[in-house]
Structure formats: structure tokens, C-alpha cells
User: Fold this.
Amino acid sequence: MLERLGAVQLDTISVLARSHELVPYARLGPVGRGAIETAYWGNGSFGAFEYWAHAASILPMRDWPLFAFRRRAYLRRGWRWHKVPEGVCDEIRARLRSDGPLTTKELGGAKASAEWWDWSEHKIGIEWLLDIGEAVCVERVGWRRVYDLAERAVPAELLAQDPDDEACLTALVARSGRALGVATRGDLADYYRLKQDQVAAVVEAAGLVPVKVAGWKQQAWADPEALAAPARGRHATTLLSPFDSLVWDRARTSRVFGFDHRLEAYVPKDKRVHGYFAMPLLAGGRLLGRVDPAREGGTLVARQVSFEPWATRTAGRAEASAAALATALWRAAAWVGCDDVRVERIVPDGVDRALVEAALKTGPA
Assistant:
């Protein structure tokens, strides 16, 4: 899955599970959370690392050489968020060489004070070594990054590769196109947070095919394999992390699905429309609405279910949407170890609650 997507975004918020666990759940079903972590970090054969792609992301180890362009850019700049204290990087290199892999806490502490932005010298130093590729985040333990030296963590054949910027960008744009299927220049740039002029310079070399998409004003490009493969009629019914690559680009999500989504975790509670961690509800290849989930003991609680207006416009659609909601909730509940499901509020208020309650009693389809 990670090879296919190219990047899985990390985030600190955990409601049902952390986002990087929700992404494989949405695609593969109820894979054990321990198995997911092992597949990312610990099976000793595939290998992954964390780096700056679409925000902080888990990436396939095979793509280590492709981020050389970003590592070089940081190195030329000389700093990222903080000026690097003199001498501290030498100390960190020595510690990692003798004692690694280590967390920031083990290296000397993450913060100089209680403020989130006030990093300690050791935190500044290790993050700088991560930025320029001398250190690698090889896993997360208790949400702490675990760092090792690149010379030890990255396979020698990958570490020896040093593609130029054009080669890096060409390969990454090709991967973006494969993951998205069809995309505008802005979509392709957003996937790995490239600049649009960087994409424009290599999009033809990346092997993507220029296409026109009905209803899109912008020029688009498609992955040749996506054009060659017949459309498949099977679709998952599931809840999506707001950081899932299917929906992380809000403008693209609106253009593809007609679905306007906003993460409200950092919005004051009284100003939220859909809830703290509203998860898009995917069914039949469409986004039917959102669920703001929580857990109370062994019960998965939907604090609010917000259906899209079209999803409940007719009796038939309302019944199908209620069934999809019930399936998504019961499947998620089973995955996180809950044995009951409760829906507190349904929006719009005119939705027949009896339909939802009846579907919940039926259980997952």
C-alpha cells in the first residue's frame, strides 16, 4: 500500500486511531494495528523512513534517493526553523554512532521550556541532521521519533545514489501521477509539496499523458496505466482520515467529489460545523457525508453525522446512505475493539432518524 500511495501523512491527532493507521484500514480493512506498525517500521525487509513530503510522512525506503533535491536545498539554506547551535551536531553524531538509535529525549531533551516551539539545542541539531539527510527517522515509539545515522539505516545501494534535482523531480511527479490517476499541475505539486514550475518542467518527462477532464478548467495529466485499466465497480465503504491522500488536498476533493471538507480540530468548539475530527464517509465511490467519532468505553459514538444534501434527497438515497453509515460505523467499531455503536446527532435535522437506527440494528453489510 505504501509503495502504491508513495506517502502516508503522519499527524498527532488520535481519535479512533492515528491517521497513518486509518489509511491502511480504509484500503485493506481491519488489519491489526500492531501489524500496520510492523509493516511500516519493523519487518526488516521492506523498510520505510519518515521525511518531509506532504507534511511529515512515512515514505518507502526505496524513495530515499528521490528526496536528495530537498536535502540539498536545506543544506544550501543553512537552517530551517532554528539556527543550528555550533558543535551540537558533532555531539549528536557521536552519540548516534555509539548508542543509536535514539529519541530526542535520550539525546538531551526536546524542549528548552514548556512552549511547543522552544526547542532544545539537541532537538534543533537532530532535526537539522534529519533535514539534510545525515540522520533518519526509522520509527515512532510513543509518538517520539527514533533517529539513527543514515549510513547505518539506509541500504548502501540507496545511500550511494545521488540523482540530480531534475531526476528527483521527474520521479516524484511520476509517482504523484500514479497515486492520483488524473491530476492538474497543482494537484501534482501538492502531493509532495513541490512548486508548480518544478512540475511543469518535468511533467512530460515523467510520462504522464495530457488529458481534458469534463468540468475542470485546468489542464490535466493522467497516468497511462490509469487510462489503460478499465474502471472497477467495487468500492469500499469506510471512514477516511482527513489526512488520507484521497482527500488531503481540499481543492482537489471539492473538484473531484463535489465535497468541501475542512479539518475543525483547531477551530474553537462553538464555531465547529461538523466536529473536532470529522471523517469523510466513503461509499460507492462517493463521499456521502462526515462522521465526528469518539469512544466511550466499548461504544463507538458518532457525535455528529452530517450527510451531504444529495445523499438524503430521496427516500431511496436516504435509505442507502443510512445503510452505508451503519456499515462504516460497525466496521470501525470492530476494528478498534468496540462492541456497540451510538449516533447522537444527524444533520440535516430532517433526515429520518428511524432509518439510521434501523440500519444500525441490522449491523454491517
